[in-house]
Write a structure and sequence with these properties.
Length: about 575
Amino acid sequence: MTTTDDPNTATAIGDRAPMTRRDPSQETRPHRTAPLTAAPALVRFLLRVDRIRALVWVLGIGALALYFSHAIQVIAGDDETLAELAGLYADPVGRMMVGPGFGMDSPTHERFFAAGYAFVLYIALALLSVFTVIRHTRADEQAGRAELLRANVVGRHATLAAALIVTMLLVLASTVLIAVSALSAGFAWEGSLLIAGTGAATGLFFAGAAAVAAQLSSSSRGASGLAGGLIGLAYVIRMAGDAPEVGGTALSWASPLGWAQQTAPYVDDLWWPVLLLAGGGLLLVGLGFSLSTRRDVGEGILPARLSRAEARPALGTPLGMAARTLVGTLRGWGIALLLAGLMFGSYSQTMLDAAGSLPPELADFFTGEDVMLGYLAYIALFMGVLVLAAAVGGLQQIRGEETRGRAEYGLSSPLSRTTWLGAHLTVVLAGVVLILAAVGAAMGLGAALSLEDDGGRYAGELIAAALQQAPAVVCVIGIVTALIGWLPRAAAPVGWASVAFCGFMGTFGGLLDPPDALLDLDPFHHLASHPVEPVAWEPIVWLTAIGAAGIVLGLLGWRRREVGRI
């Protein structure tokens, strides 16, 4: 037996160690982190990360408000011209597109601004809210950044709270610019503040919707689809509610966008519908926080759909794998646009009945002497711009495959870079053509069902009118692909800016009379307004050639640069 020199601590080898009593005051208890711990630091961090994107959003919305509020005073400088233009938004088609047409029986510049352009600003604020919240919640979780942040001392609600705070800071900054723009045009202060307040409440409502969507879906794409689908559904419901009569119907109140426009700025100046938007937004925010405690980080409330037990043989090919990656996005866009085409086509009889009573400005807005055909040609153009949005979304998903590292896995097999990117582009191009054909057929079906006299004769012409938009879409696809190859960080911003520009020029270009140089930048502007005009092949060839050249240039850049470059 061996002992130590101190008899009080002497123990034999193998004997039990002496018992010691613990001091309760020195026990270490688990530390509980407050739910919002580190939220202010995350707000500063997110503002730093989004400094360029946020600046573009805020200044872009402010510039739109400034242009809208001042341009109408230049275009309609006298009361007679203004009264003629007011018919654009007092007509059923005008109400269907932009709102209930409050005050168009006695129009002023400020009422015309509220009736025709405030709605565009509300949509922009809704999109800003959705994109920002999803980007800093679900997208960060999907990329693994949220888990890295939460490894520090961060409260469980801090990430979502920071995303919502940053979103509302951007929304409020945008609405301040909207109010300043309206006031600088000499508009009444109460109506100007009401438009700004309504915009802020709209942003809050859809920020809450995005917060809920981020908890429901396990992917950023799914969450964006849910929140964006709510915007689209609200728009469609509002269209159906506002078209029948001035001021809207009961159906208008079923849409949060309808609540925004029922405030009637510069006419009734109602503030209480803003409370519906703000209250609904706060309820959705609370629901988002509640749902965030019921799931694991990286997972969604809604279960992911199970895959097949065995993979299809097509997944062993580059084209099959590309289709598997992109088909969900394209299918979702296709279904939504098919339903929209059917709805727009069903208004053909309404346009035919209203042709004789349309104001000259609205009749001129639709190309040609046949107002109904002009309406269908415009709808084909409008749907073409939406298909362009689907194509840009597909291209952004291709870029996402690279930034998330999945492209590198595919290229680790005996697969060339050109084949990988070419297969994905083939799927996007094929999807564009199929969606356009389906939209044209849906428009033809809607027209056939609504028209009393042989509406089926327009089916073939509407399919051709929709397919004619494909070269313009291909042109933008080529430009974005070239950027993916050489300047990948600029690809998504340029793509979505192209969608916004084409949509704006197609909708408001004829009314605002922009310079020809600006119109020429819109690829859709060069196409003939079929079925009013015969198909013009020269712009089709040129636009397709530009798109093909951009694709080739992008493939060359993709082969030369480093994969995964951010």
